[in-house]
Design a protein that fits this description.
Elements: E1 6-8, E2 22-26, H1 39-48, H2 62-69, H3 80-89, E3 92-96, E4 98-103, E5 113-118, H4 120-128, E6 133-136, H5 139-150, E7 159-160, H6 162-175, E8 188-193, E9 196-202, H7 223-239
Parallel strand pairs: 2-3, 2-6, 6-9
Antiparallel strand pairs: 1-4, 4-5, 7-8, 8-9
Helix pairs in contact: 2-7
């Protein structure tokens, strides 16, 4: 990967589902899935089985969670056309916060993505046209949603309803048997935009759910059970 290479998100428009009331929001695709495409990316996709689509890496785990909790007809590895049909049927859009960026060390970690251009128009358009529930695929995505999409600029797109957000988070974590007191960075937010509210919740990393799970309220011994319940409750809430 050349130093200074700016990568561009190639398929944001595919996720702009007409009539969507719900949204799955990530950050940016893995290196193999971005533009400009090249022979290195092509060879990596061939070797690893990566698909040029949202969460196209075989390690991401997102579409397995979607299959297990929303649509059990989904095939793995995922077929983008089948995924898009399923999302459209359920009025779920999918997007990412970043339109273009530079990447350090081939990493997809949020803190390795720099010189960002945010995908503001697409995300704000989805909200203006009916999205009221958002699953963010990391706490970093939730933070960017608040700072770069809702509050950014001299004329903010919306405001944060701290009381409603705290109440939603407390009820969600208590329903899992988790501990809200150990959550130091919010995992849920409620935004007021014009005369309506948009609720967003972050989920643990689909590819490594045990990572920093305590920051999602886990304080027990069986992390797998807690993560499974967290994913199940979050996706069921989204699909209601």
């Amino acid at each position: 990967m050349p130093i200074g290479e700016i990568e561009i998100h190639p398929y944001l428009q595919q996720g702009q589902i007409n009539g969507a009331t719900k949204l799955i929001l990530g950050s940016f695709p893995v290196y193999e899935c971005t533009d400009q495409d090249n022979t290195t990316k092509q060879q990596n996709r061939l070797n690893e089985g990566t698909i040029r689509f949202f969460y196209g890496s075989i390690d991401s785990g997102l579409w397995g969670l979607y299959r297990d909790n929303i649509d059990d007809t989904i095939l793995l590895p995922p077929d983008p056309n089948q995924i898009l049909q399923s999302l459209a049927h359920r009025q779920i859009a999918i997007s990412d916060t970043i339109y273009s960026c530079e990447r350090h060390d081939f990493s997809s970690l949020d803190n390795k993505l720099i010189r960002r251009t945010y995908n503001i128009q697409c995300v704000q358009s989805l909200i203006q046209n009916g999205v009221r529930k958002i699953i963010c695929t990391s706490r970093g995505v939730l933070k960017d949603l608040e700072r770069q999409f809702i509050l950014h600029g001299n004329l903010p797109f919306g405001q944060v309803d701290n009381l409603a957000g705290c109440t939603f988070q407390e009820n969600f974590v208590q329903g899992l048997g988790g501990n809200n007191n150990q959550i130091t960075s919010p995992i849920a937010k409620v935004f007021t935009i014009d005369n309506y509210q948009v609720t967003a919740i972050a989920i643990p990393s689909p590819g490594s759910p045990q990572r920093k799970l305590a920051q999602f309220g886990f304080n027990g011994n069986d992390w797998r059970n807690y993560a499974d319940n967290y994913f199940s409750n979050a996706f069921n809430w989204l699909n209601e």
